[in-house]
Amino acid sequence: MDFLRPASWEEALAAKAEHPTAVPIAGGTDIMVEINFDHRRPEYLLDLNRIELLREWEVGEENVRLGASVPYTQIMENLRTELPGLALASHTVASPQIRNRGGVGGNLGTASPAGDAHPALLAAGAEVEVESVRGSRFIPIDEFYTGVKRNALQPDELIKTVHIKKADGPQQYSKVGTRNAMVIAVCAFGLALHPETRTVRTGIGSAAPTPIRAKEAEAFLNAALEEGGFWDNGKIITPSVAKQFADLCSAAANPIDDVRGTAKYRRHAVGIMARRQLGWTWEQYRGSGRTLEGAA
Amino acid sequence: MRVNFTVNGRPQEADDVWEGESLLYVLRERMGLPGSKNACEQGECGSCTVRLDGVPVCSCLVAAGQVEGREVVTVEGLAEFAKDRAEHAGCAAGTCGTSLDAAKKWEAKPGQDSQTGEGVELSPIQQAFIDAGAVQCGFCTPGLLVAADEMLERNPSPTDADIREALSGNLCRCTGYEKILDAVRLAAARQERQGEAV
Q: PROSITE patterns per the record (chain A) (predicted)?
Protein backbone atom coordinates (compact mmCIF):
# COMPACT_ATOMS: atom_id res chain seq x y z
CA MET A 1 0.00 0.00 0.00
CA ASP A 2 1.15 3.52 -0.74
CA PHE A 3 0.06 6.67 1.02
CA LEU A 4 -0.15 9.67 -1.30
CA ARG A 5 -0.17 13.07 0.37
CA PRO A 6 -0.83 15.76 -2.23
CA ALA A 7 -0.37 19.29 -0.88
CA SER A 8 -2.66 20.91 -3.44
CA TRP A 9 -5.74 20.14 -5.49
CA GLU A 10 -3.67 20.06 -8.70
CA GLU A 11 -1.31 17.53 -7.15
CA ALA A 12 -4.29 15.43 -6.05
CA LEU A 13 -5.72 15.40 -9.58
CA ALA A 14 -2.34 14.46 -11.00
CA ALA A 15 -2.00 11.64 -8.48
CA LYS A 16 -5.49 10.35 -9.27
CA ALA A 17 -4.72 10.47 -13.00
CA GLU A 18 -1.53 8.53 -12.48
CA HIS A 19 -3.13 6.02 -10.11
CA PRO A 20 -6.82 5.70 -11.00
CA THR A 21 -7.22 2.88 -8.46
CA ALA A 22 -6.16 5.20 -5.63
CA VAL A 23 -8.86 5.44 -2.96
CA PRO A 24 -9.42 9.01 -1.74
CA ILE A 25 -9.47 9.39 2.03
CA ALA A 26 -10.76 12.55 3.71
CA GLY A 27 -12.62 11.97 6.99
CA GLY A 28 -11.79 8.29 6.76
CA THR A 29 -14.98 7.26 8.53
CA ASP A 30 -15.87 4.76 5.78
CA ILE A 31 -12.56 3.70 4.34
CA MET A 32 -10.73 3.22 7.66
CA VAL A 33 -13.43 0.81 8.84
CA GLU A 34 -12.86 -1.29 5.75
CA ILE A 35 -9.09 -1.22 6.24
CA ASN A 36 -9.30 -1.98 9.97
CA PHE A 37 -11.47 -5.01 9.22
CA ASP A 38 -9.31 -6.21 6.35
CA HIS A 39 -12.19 -5.83 3.92
CA ARG A 40 -10.17 -3.67 1.63
CA ARG A 41 -6.50 -3.26 0.81
CA PRO A 42 -6.27 -0.43 -1.68
CA GLU A 43 -3.03 -0.15 -3.58
CA TYR A 44 -2.97 3.59 -2.94
CA LEU A 45 -4.60 5.82 -0.36
CA LEU A 46 -4.98 9.40 -1.55
CA ASP A 47 -5.11 11.68 1.49
CA LEU A 48 -7.16 14.82 0.86
CA ASN A 49 -6.75 16.33 4.34
CA ARG A 50 -4.09 18.81 3.31
CA ILE A 51 -6.21 20.38 0.58
CA GLU A 52 -7.69 23.51 2.09
CA LEU A 53 -10.18 24.28 -0.65
CA LEU A 54 -12.08 21.08 0.10
CA ARG A 55 -12.80 22.36 3.61
CA GLU A 56 -14.14 25.74 2.49
CA TRP A 57 -17.68 26.82 1.72
CA GLU A 58 -19.14 29.92 0.20
CA VAL A 59 -22.68 31.24 0.21
CA GLY A 60 -23.52 32.68 -3.20
CA GLU A 61 -26.61 34.33 -4.67
CA GLU A 62 -28.40 31.12 -5.53
CA ASN A 63 -26.17 28.31 -4.37
CA VAL A 64 -23.98 27.27 -1.51
CA ARG A 65 -20.65 26.00 -2.75
CA LEU A 66 -19.80 23.33 -0.23
CA GLY A 67 -16.30 21.86 -0.28
CA ALA A 68 -16.37 18.06 -0.38
CA SER A 69 -14.63 17.69 3.00
CA VAL A 70 -16.48 20.34 5.03
CA PRO A 71 -17.29 18.36 8.17
CA TYR A 72 -20.93 17.78 9.09
CA THR A 73 -20.35 19.71 12.33
CA GLN A 74 -19.58 22.83 10.30
CA ILE A 75 -22.68 22.39 8.15
CA MET A 76 -24.84 22.06 11.28
CA GLU A 77 -23.31 25.11 12.89
CA ASN A 78 -22.89 27.46 9.94
CA LEU A 79 -25.35 26.62 7.19
CA ARG A 80 -28.59 26.06 9.05
CA THR A 81 -30.32 28.99 7.34
CA GLU A 82 -29.11 28.36 3.82
CA LEU A 83 -29.29 24.57 3.88
CA PRO A 84 -31.83 23.65 6.57
CA GLY A 85 -32.51 20.16 5.20
CA LEU A 86 -28.85 19.26 4.94
CA ALA A 87 -28.16 20.76 8.39
CA LEU A 88 -30.86 18.53 9.89
CA ALA A 89 -29.49 15.53 8.01
CA SER A 90 -25.96 16.34 9.19
CA HIS A 91 -27.18 16.34 12.77
CA THR A 92 -28.36 12.73 12.39
CA VAL A 93 -24.95 11.51 11.21
CA ALA A 94 -23.44 9.08 13.71
CA SER A 95 -21.84 10.96 16.63
CA PRO A 96 -19.96 14.22 17.28
CA GLN A 97 -16.62 12.47 16.70
CA ILE A 98 -17.75 11.22 13.29
CA ARG A 99 -19.41 14.53 12.34
CA ASN A 100 -16.10 16.26 13.08
CA ARG A 101 -14.41 14.20 10.36
CA GLY A 102 -16.96 13.16 7.78
CA GLY A 103 -18.35 15.35 5.01
CA VAL A 104 -20.77 15.26 2.10
CA GLY A 105 -18.03 14.35 -0.38
CA GLY A 106 -17.56 11.06 1.44
CA ASN A 107 -21.27 10.32 1.39
CA LEU A 108 -21.29 10.95 -2.36
CA GLY A 109 -18.11 8.98 -2.99
CA THR A 110 -19.40 5.96 -1.08
CA ALA A 111 -22.87 6.45 -2.62
CA SER A 112 -24.49 4.11 -0.13
CA PRO A 113 -28.29 4.26 -0.38
CA ALA A 114 -28.18 4.81 3.40
CA GLY A 115 -25.95 7.91 3.28
CA ASP A 116 -27.63 10.55 5.45
CA ALA A 117 -26.95 13.53 3.19
CA HIS A 118 -28.52 12.15 0.02
CA PRO A 119 -32.25 12.78 0.68
CA ALA A 120 -31.48 16.37 1.69
CA LEU A 121 -29.39 16.98 -1.45
CA LEU A 122 -32.08 15.48 -3.68
CA ALA A 123 -34.81 17.57 -2.07
CA ALA A 124 -32.88 20.84 -2.11
CA GLY A 125 -31.51 20.36 -5.62
CA ALA A 126 -27.77 20.13 -6.14
CA GLU A 127 -24.98 19.60 -8.61
CA VAL A 128 -21.75 17.78 -7.90
CA GLU A 129 -18.64 19.41 -9.33
CA VAL A 130 -16.07 16.76 -10.14
CA GLU A 131 -12.67 17.31 -11.65
CA SER A 132 -9.82 15.43 -13.26
CA VAL A 133 -6.72 16.50 -15.15
CA ARG A 134 -8.99 16.41 -18.22
CA GLY A 135 -11.18 19.17 -16.82
CA SER A 136 -14.19 19.63 -14.59
CA ARG A 137 -17.88 18.89 -15.03
CA PHE A 138 -21.10 19.32 -13.09
CA ILE A 139 -23.22 16.23 -12.44
CA PRO A 140 -26.85 16.92 -11.47
CA ILE A 141 -27.61 15.12 -8.21
CA ASP A 142 -30.43 13.16 -9.91
CA GLU A 143 -27.88 11.60 -12.25
CA PHE A 144 -25.15 11.06 -9.69
CA TYR A 145 -26.28 7.79 -8.10
CA THR A 146 -26.03 4.99 -10.65
CA GLY A 147 -26.40 1.84 -8.54
CA VAL A 148 -25.86 0.34 -5.09
CA LYS A 149 -22.69 2.09 -3.89
CA ARG A 150 -22.03 3.28 -7.43
CA ASN A 151 -21.83 6.82 -8.73
CA ALA A 152 -21.20 8.68 -11.96
CA LEU A 153 -17.52 9.39 -11.23
CA GLN A 154 -14.85 8.36 -13.73
CA PRO A 155 -11.80 6.57 -12.27
CA ASP A 156 -9.60 9.65 -12.62
CA GLU A 157 -12.12 12.10 -11.16
CA LEU A 158 -12.36 13.54 -7.65
CA ILE A 159 -15.32 15.26 -6.02
CA LYS A 160 -14.47 18.91 -5.47
CA THR A 161 -17.53 20.93 -4.56
CA VAL A 162 -21.23 20.32 -4.05
CA HIS A 163 -23.33 23.20 -5.35
CA ILE A 164 -26.57 23.14 -3.38
CA LYS A 165 -29.53 25.43 -4.02
CA LYS A 166 -30.06 27.85 -1.14
CA ALA A 167 -33.38 27.21 0.56
CA ASP A 168 -36.18 29.42 -0.76
CA GLY A 169 -38.72 27.77 1.53
CA PRO A 170 -39.02 25.41 4.49
CA GLN A 171 -37.19 22.08 4.41
CA GLN A 172 -37.41 18.99 6.58
CA TYR A 173 -35.52 15.78 7.10
CA SER A 174 -36.13 12.68 9.18
CA LYS A 175 -34.45 9.38 9.66
CA VAL A 176 -35.73 6.19 11.24
CA GLY A 177 -33.35 4.29 13.50
CA THR A 178 -33.26 2.52 16.83
CA ARG A 179 -31.61 5.38 18.71
CA ASN A 180 -30.76 9.03 18.23
CA ALA A 181 -27.09 8.49 17.51
CA MET A 182 -24.81 5.99 15.83
CA VAL A 183 -27.38 4.39 13.58
CA ILE A 184 -27.45 3.58 9.91
CA ALA A 185 -30.81 4.74 8.62
CA VAL A 186 -33.54 2.12 8.40
CA CYS A 187 -34.94 4.65 5.99
CA ALA A 188 -34.85 8.43 5.65
CA PHE A 189 -36.85 11.14 3.96
CA GLY A 190 -36.23 14.75 3.01
CA LEU A 191 -38.67 17.34 1.74
CA ALA A 192 -38.14 20.86 0.43
CA LEU A 193 -40.75 23.43 -0.53
CA HIS A 194 -39.61 25.75 -3.30
CA PRO A 195 -42.11 28.64 -3.26
CA GLU A 196 -40.17 30.56 -5.91
CA THR A 197 -40.83 27.89 -8.51
CA ARG A 198 -43.95 26.61 -6.74
CA THR A 199 -42.56 23.12 -6.60
CA VAL A 200 -41.90 20.50 -4.00
CA ARG A 201 -38.94 18.13 -4.09
CA THR A 202 -38.35 14.94 -2.14
CA GLY A 203 -35.51 12.59 -1.32
CA ILE A 204 -35.74 9.01 -0.07
CA GLY A 205 -32.84 7.18 1.58
CA SER A 206 -32.31 3.49 2.38
CA ALA A 207 -35.47 2.40 0.61
CA ALA A 208 -34.23 1.65 -2.90
CA PRO A 209 -30.93 0.54 -4.50
CA THR A 210 -29.93 4.22 -4.70
CA PRO A 211 -31.16 7.40 -3.06
CA ILE A 212 -34.17 8.50 -5.10
CA ARG A 213 -36.77 11.20 -5.51
CA ALA A 214 -40.46 10.36 -5.40
CA LYS A 215 -41.09 12.07 -8.72
CA GLU A 216 -44.69 10.96 -9.20
CA ALA A 217 -45.54 12.14 -5.71
CA GLU A 218 -43.90 15.48 -6.44
CA ALA A 219 -45.79 15.89 -9.72
CA PHE A 220 -49.08 15.02 -8.03
CA LEU A 221 -48.50 17.46 -5.17
CA ASN A 222 -47.27 20.24 -7.46
CA ALA A 223 -50.46 19.92 -9.52
CA ALA A 224 -52.72 19.70 -6.47
CA LEU A 225 -51.14 22.76 -4.82
CA GLU A 226 -51.40 24.74 -8.04
CA GLU A 227 -54.96 23.71 -8.71
CA GLY A 228 -56.13 24.55 -5.21
CA GLY A 229 -54.27 27.88 -5.22
CA PHE A 230 -52.52 26.76 -2.02
CA TRP A 231 -49.31 28.70 -2.65
CA ASP A 232 -51.34 31.94 -2.68
CA ASN A 233 -54.13 31.30 -0.22
CA GLY A 234 -51.86 29.48 2.27
CA LYS A 235 -54.71 27.19 3.29
CA ILE A 236 -54.14 23.95 5.14
CA ILE A 237 -53.48 21.17 2.65
CA THR A 238 -56.50 18.92 2.24
CA PRO A 239 -55.94 15.65 4.16
CA SER A 240 -56.81 13.58 1.09
CA VAL A 241 -54.08 15.38 -0.87
CA ALA A 242 -51.55 14.77 1.92
CA LYS A 243 -52.55 11.11 2.06
CA GLN A 244 -52.26 10.65 -1.68
CA PHE A 245 -48.83 12.32 -1.59
CA ALA A 246 -47.71 9.98 1.22
CA ASP A 247 -49.02 6.93 -0.64
CA LEU A 248 -47.17 7.92 -3.79
CA CYS A 249 -43.94 8.42 -1.78
CA SER A 250 -44.40 4.92 -0.34
CA ALA A 251 -44.97 3.56 -3.81
CA ALA A 252 -41.80 5.22 -5.09
CA ALA A 253 -39.73 3.26 -2.59
CA ASN A 254 -38.31 -0.05 -3.70
CA PRO A 255 -36.86 -1.41 -0.47
CA ILE A 256 -35.46 -4.76 0.60
CA ASP A 257 -35.74 -6.83 3.78
CA ASP A 258 -32.52 -6.73 5.79
CA VAL A 259 -31.26 -6.78 9.36
CA ARG A 260 -32.29 -3.17 9.93
CA GLY A 261 -35.89 -3.53 8.81
CA THR A 262 -38.34 -5.16 6.45
CA ALA A 263 -39.32 -3.81 3.06
CA LYS A 264 -42.90 -3.49 4.26
CA TYR A 265 -41.90 -1.42 7.27
CA ARG A 266 -39.66 0.82 5.20
CA ARG A 267 -42.39 1.53 2.69
CA HIS A 268 -44.79 2.31 5.50
CA ALA A 269 -42.31 4.57 7.30
CA VAL A 270 -41.49 6.52 4.14
CA GLY A 271 -45.19 7.33 3.76
CA ILE A 272 -45.48 8.44 7.39
CA MET A 273 -42.41 10.67 7.15
CA ALA A 274 -43.65 12.17 3.89
CA ARG A 275 -47.05 13.05 5.35
CA ARG A 276 -45.59 14.50 8.55
CA GLN A 277 -42.94 16.54 6.77
CA LEU A 278 -45.49 17.95 4.38
CA GLY A 279 -47.49 19.06 7.41
CA TRP A 280 -44.48 20.59 9.19
CA THR A 281 -43.10 22.43 6.18
CA TRP A 282 -46.49 23.66 5.06
CA GLU A 283 -47.25 25.00 8.55
CA GLN A 284 -43.93 26.82 8.42
CA TYR A 285 -44.74 28.21 4.97
CA ARG A 286 -48.16 29.40 6.13
CA GLY A 287 -46.71 30.93 9.28
CA SER A 288 -46.21 34.67 9.21
CA GLY A 289 -42.53 34.39 10.02
CA ARG A 290 -41.85 32.03 7.14
CA THR A 291 -38.49 31.29 8.66
CA LEU A 292 -36.32 28.96 6.71
CA GLU A 293 -34.48 27.53 9.64
CA GLY A 294 -35.04 23.83 10.23
CA ALA A 295 -36.72 22.71 13.41
CA ALA A 296 -35.39 20.02 15.77
CA MET B 1 6.36 5.58 6.08
CA ARG B 2 7.54 8.11 8.65
CA VAL B 3 5.05 10.34 10.47
CA ASN B 4 5.91 13.43 12.52
CA PHE B 5 3.31 14.96 14.76
CA THR B 6 2.83 16.40 18.23
CA VAL B 7 1.39 14.30 21.00
CA ASN B 8 0.45 15.91 24.30
CA GLY B 9 2.67 18.89 23.56
CA ARG B 10 5.73 16.91 22.50
CA PRO B 11 7.00 16.43 18.96
CA GLN B 12 7.02 12.75 18.10
CA GLU B 13 8.28 10.72 15.20
CA ALA B 14 6.97 7.32 14.23
CA ASP B 15 8.97 5.20 11.82
CA ASP B 16 8.02 2.24 9.65
CA VAL B 17 4.36 3.07 9.94
CA TRP B 18 2.23 0.89 7.67
CA GLU B 19 0.24 3.04 5.23
CA GLY B 20 -3.10 1.64 6.34
CA GLU B 21 -2.34 2.03 10.03
CA SER B 22 -4.65 4.04 12.26
CA LEU B 23 -3.63 6.86 14.58
CA LEU B 24 -4.92 4.67 17.43
CA TYR B 25 -2.46 1.92 16.58
CA VAL B 26 0.44 4.37 16.40
CA LEU B 27 -0.45 5.84 19.78
CA ARG B 28 -0.90 2.51 21.54
CA GLU B 29 1.67 0.27 19.90
CA ARG B 30 4.39 2.64 18.80
CA MET B 31 4.29 5.43 21.37
CA GLY B 32 3.38 3.51 24.49
CA LEU B 33 0.22 5.50 25.08
CA PRO B 34 -2.38 2.82 25.84
CA GLY B 35 -4.88 5.27 27.35
CA SER B 36 -6.90 5.50 24.16
CA LYS B 37 -8.71 2.18 24.02
CA ASN B 38 -9.11 -0.13 21.08
CA ALA B 39 -12.58 -1.63 21.11
CA CYS B 40 -14.73 -1.53 17.99
CA GLU B 41 -12.28 -0.16 15.41
CA GLN B 42 -15.21 1.23 13.44
CA GLY B 43 -16.06 4.51 15.14
CA GLU B 44 -19.07 3.10 16.98
CA CYS B 45 -17.86 3.16 20.57
CA GLY B 46 -15.77 6.31 21.07
CA SER B 47 -13.31 4.65 23.43
CA CYS B 48 -10.41 5.77 21.23
CA THR B 49 -11.46 9.45 21.25
CA VAL B 50 -8.57 11.94 21.09
CA ARG B 51 -8.33 15.61 20.15
CA LEU B 52 -6.90 16.22 16.68
CA ASP B 53 -6.03 19.91 16.33
CA GLY B 54 -8.46 20.47 19.20
CA VAL B 55 -11.35 18.52 17.67
CA PRO B 56 -12.57 15.22 19.20
CA VAL B 57 -12.24 12.36 16.74
CA CYS B 58 -12.14 8.59 16.80
CA SER B 59 -8.43 7.86 16.44
CA CYS B 60 -9.23 4.44 14.97
CA LEU B 61 -10.66 6.16 11.89
CA VAL B 62 -7.78 8.58 11.32
CA ALA B 63 -5.07 7.20 9.07
CA ALA B 64 -1.65 7.70 10.65
CA GLY B 65 -0.41 9.52 7.57
CA GLN B 66 -3.16 12.08 7.98
CA VAL B 67 -1.77 13.42 11.27
CA GLU B 68 1.56 14.55 9.76
CA GLY B 69 2.38 17.92 11.30
CA ARG B 70 -0.74 18.01 13.46
CA GLU B 71 -1.51 18.17 17.18
CA VAL B 72 -2.93 15.26 19.12
CA VAL B 73 -4.02 15.28 22.76
CA THR B 74 -4.75 11.92 24.35
CA VAL B 75 -6.20 11.11 27.74
CA GLU B 76 -2.64 10.87 29.08
CA GLY B 77 -2.15 14.56 28.36
CA LEU B 78 -5.63 15.65 29.35
CA ALA B 79 -4.78 16.86 32.85
CA GLU B 80 -1.93 19.06 31.62
CA PHE B 81 -4.02 20.28 28.73
CA ALA B 82 -6.90 21.22 31.03
CA LYS B 83 -4.58 22.89 33.50
CA ASP B 84 -2.98 24.95 30.79
CA ARG B 85 -6.37 25.95 29.47
CA ALA B 86 -7.51 27.03 32.92
CA GLU B 87 -4.41 29.16 33.36
CA HIS B 88 -4.28 30.78 29.96
CA ALA B 89 -7.66 30.75 28.34
CA GLY B 90 -10.11 30.35 31.19
CA CYS B 91 -13.75 30.96 30.50
CA ALA B 92 -13.74 33.58 33.24
CA ALA B 93 -11.92 35.81 30.77
CA GLY B 94 -14.79 35.36 28.38
CA THR B 95 -12.73 33.44 25.89
CA CYS B 96 -13.90 29.87 26.00
CA GLY B 97 -12.09 27.20 24.09
CA THR B 98 -8.50 26.75 23.08
CA SER B 99 -7.36 28.20 19.81
CA LEU B 100 -5.21 26.11 17.51
CA ASP B 101 -2.34 28.52 18.09
CA ALA B 102 -2.71 28.23 21.85
CA ALA B 103 -2.83 24.46 21.60
CA LYS B 104 0.28 24.44 19.46
CA LYS B 105 2.23 26.54 21.93
CA TRP B 106 1.47 24.16 24.74
CA GLU B 107 4.33 22.01 25.98
CA ALA B 108 4.64 19.53 28.79
CA LYS B 109 6.63 21.07 31.62
CA PRO B 110 9.92 19.54 32.77
CA GLY B 111 9.57 17.05 35.58
CA GLN B 112 6.14 15.97 34.46
CA ASP B 113 5.65 12.77 32.60
CA SER B 114 3.22 13.18 29.75
CA GLN B 115 3.58 9.50 28.97
CA THR B 116 1.83 8.04 31.95
CA GLY B 117 0.34 11.21 33.31
CA GLU B 118 1.96 10.45 36.65
CA GLY B 119 3.01 13.38 38.80
CA VAL B 120 0.27 15.52 37.33
CA GLU B 121 -2.81 16.69 39.12
CA LEU B 122 -5.99 15.26 37.65
CA SER B 123 -8.12 17.43 35.41
CA PRO B 124 -11.47 18.55 36.84
CA ILE B 125 -13.36 16.09 34.65
CA GLN B 126 -11.16 13.20 35.79
CA GLN B 127 -11.66 14.15 39.44
CA ALA B 128 -15.39 14.42 38.88
CA PHE B 129 -15.54 10.93 37.36
CA ILE B 130 -13.87 9.55 40.48
CA ASP B 131 -16.01 11.55 42.89
CA ALA B 132 -19.26 10.61 41.15
CA GLY B 133 -18.33 6.90 40.88
CA ALA B 134 -18.56 7.10 37.11
CA VAL B 135 -15.87 4.49 36.54
CA GLN B 136 -16.86 0.84 36.50
CA CYS B 137 -14.74 -1.41 34.30
CA GLY B 138 -13.03 1.74 33.06
CA PHE B 139 -12.71 0.79 29.44
CA CYS B 140 -14.91 3.58 28.09
CA THR B 141 -13.59 6.15 30.58
CA PRO B 142 -10.67 7.63 28.59
CA GLY B 143 -12.84 8.34 25.57
CA LEU B 144 -15.58 9.79 27.72
CA LEU B 145 -13.10 12.02 29.55
CA VAL B 146 -11.72 13.48 26.33
CA ALA B 147 -15.21 14.00 24.87
CA ALA B 148 -16.67 15.46 28.09
CA ASP B 149 -13.69 17.76 28.65
CA GLU B 150 -14.06 19.18 25.15
CA MET B 151 -17.77 19.77 25.65
CA LEU B 152 -17.16 21.64 28.92
CA GLU B 153 -14.56 23.77 27.15
CA ARG B 154 -17.06 24.71 24.45
CA ASN B 155 -20.17 24.79 26.57
CA PRO B 156 -19.46 25.48 30.26
CA SER B 157 -23.13 25.28 31.31
CA PRO B 158 -24.50 22.29 29.45
CA THR B 159 -28.07 21.09 29.74
CA ASP B 160 -28.69 17.37 30.16
CA ALA B 161 -29.59 17.24 26.48
CA ASP B 162 -26.26 18.87 25.59
CA ILE B 163 -24.37 16.31 27.69
CA ARG B 164 -26.24 13.40 26.17
CA GLU B 165 -25.58 14.63 22.68
CA ALA B 166 -21.89 15.36 23.31
CA LEU B 167 -21.42 11.85 24.71
CA SER B 168 -23.67 10.08 22.22
CA GLY B 169 -20.68 8.63 20.42
CA ASN B 170 -19.26 6.98 23.54
CA LEU B 171 -20.63 3.62 24.60
CA CYS B 172 -20.35 2.24 28.14
CA ARG B 173 -20.82 -1.52 28.11
CA CYS B 174 -21.34 -1.53 31.89
CA THR B 175 -24.28 0.78 31.13
CA GLY B 176 -23.09 3.19 33.82
CA TYR B 177 -24.55 6.20 32.07
CA GLU B 178 -26.36 7.77 35.02
CA LYS B 179 -23.16 8.14 37.05
CA ILE B 180 -21.34 9.38 33.96
CA LEU B 181 -23.98 12.09 33.52
CA ASP B 182 -23.64 12.89 37.23
CA ALA B 183 -19.89 13.27 36.81
CA VAL B 184 -20.21 15.69 33.92
CA ARG B 185 -22.83 17.73 35.78
CA LEU B 186 -20.50 17.80 38.78
CA ALA B 187 -17.56 18.98 36.71
CA ALA B 188 -19.71 21.65 35.08
CA ALA B 189 -20.94 22.87 38.48
CA ARG B 190 -17.41 22.99 39.88
CA GLN B 191 -16.18 24.81 36.81
CA GLU B 192 -18.98 27.33 37.17
CA ARG B 193 -18.22 27.87 40.86
CA GLN B 194 -14.56 28.38 40.11
CA GLY B 195 -15.47 30.85 37.40
CA GLU B 196 -17.47 32.88 39.94
CA ALA B 197 -14.66 32.81 42.46
CA VAL B 198 -12.14 34.24 39.99
A: FAD_PCMH
Give the number of other Cβ atoms within 10 Å of residue A289's Cβ.
Answer: 7
Report which residue type is found at B179: K
Q: When comparing pLDDT for B97 and A17, which is higher? A: A17
Whole-model pTM: value is 0.92
Q: Identify which of B62, B166, B168 has the shortest CB distance to residue A180.
A: B168
Minimum-distance CB partner of B61 among A3, A29, A180 = A29
**Given pLDDT bands bounded at 50, 70 and 90, which one contains residue B194?**
confident
- For the segment B52-89, what is each residue's pLDDT rounded down to a tens digit? 999 999 999 999 999 999 999 999 999 999 999 998 86
A3 — contact with chain B (CB < 8 Å)? yes
- Measured between CB atoms, which of B22, B55, B168 is closest to A32? B22
Q: Do B165 and A182 touch (CB under 8 A)?
A: no
Separation between Cα atoms, residue A74 and residue A103, nearest integer Å: 9
Sequence spans of domains, chain A: 171-286
Q: How far apart are CA B96 and CA B92, in angstroms?
A: 8
Give the whole-angstrom CA distance, residue A216 versus residue A199: 13
Note whether A32 contacts B62, CB cutoff 8 Å.
yes
Assign domain B3-73 to its CATH architecture: Roll (3.10)
Q: Give me the interface pTM, i.e. the ipTM.
A: 0.94
CATH topology of domain A171-286: Enolase-like; domain 1 (3.30.390)
Q: For residue A36, which residues of chain B lie inside 8 Å, CB to CB?
A: 22, 41-42, 60
What pLDDT is attached to residue B109? 58
Element (H, E) at A138: strand A135-140
Positions of CATH 1.10.150.120 in chain B: 75-92+113-197
